[in-house]
Design brief:
Blueprint: E1 16-19, E2 23-26, E3 31-33, E4 39-42, E5 46-49, E6 54-57, E7 63-65, E8 70-80, E9 86-88, E10 94-104, E11 109-111, E12 115-126, E13 135-139, E14 145-147, E15 152-155, E16 159-163, E17 171-173, E18 177-178
Parallel strand pairs: 1-4, 2-5, 3-6, 4-7, 5-8, 6-8, 7-9, 8-10, 10-12, 11-13, 12-14, 12-15, 13-16
Antiparallel strand pairs: 15-18, 16-17
Length: 179
């Protein structure tokens, strides 16, 4: 889908948009997945190429990936509203961030299933709506956080990064810059 714009489509309540293997979505402008909008569900290996635009997820599970598949998010700013605005729904799913600025709103963000990989560059920051200083990013999956060769992950100082594989052990990294 080139210059993808779901605003030109009409959906019923509780609708979702399912994408299969090989899907490539190119954003033509900034887009918002609002709470009343259909969720975007990826049932196959797929890519969302922001082409420099911003994608806002204001819906719980607004973007999900199922099964042992890979969803690549690239060339965008991704603003996540709810704690699970984007989610892997399987332990074997992989979300790749490639040249992405991930902005976490004050509710925080939890990555509870699957693996997360950084290609080239990713920056994670708190921001929009952050009223209490620091924002929580909780990585509590059995999967992996991988920073690929010649890649960089920057976690801004306003993020409490919680690497929490076992919820009984709360390990928080503050003021962390990972290279």
């Amino acid at each position: 889908f080139k210059d993808f714009n779901p605003e030109v489509m009409t959906f019923g309540t509780s609708s979702s948009i399912k994408y299969g293997d090989g899907t490539v979505i190119e954003l033509g402008k900034d887009l918002t997945i609002a709470p009343a909008d259909p969720a975007w569900t990826f049932d196959g290996n797929a890519t969302i190429d922001g082409k420099g635009a911003t994608l806002f997820t204001q819906k719980t599970n607004g973007i999900t990936i199922t099964g042992a598949k890979t969803l690549t998010l690239k060339n965008m700013t991704l603003v996540v509203g709810p704690v699970t605005g984007i989610a892997a729904l399987d332990d074997d799913a992989l979300i790749e961030l490639q040249d992405v600025n991930l902005v976490i709103q004050d509710s925080g963000f939890t990555f509870a299933q699957g693996s997360l990989s950084v290609i080239n560059f990713a920056r994670i920051t708190g921001g929009i709506g952050a009223t209490v200083g620091r924002t929580d990013l909780t990585f509590s999956t059995k999967g992996f956080l991988t920073i690929q060769d010649r890649s960089e992950l920057i976690i801004d100082p306003n993020i409490n990064f919680k690497y929490n594989i076992n919820p009984a052990n709360d390990t928080t990294l503050n003021d962390t810059k990972i290279h």
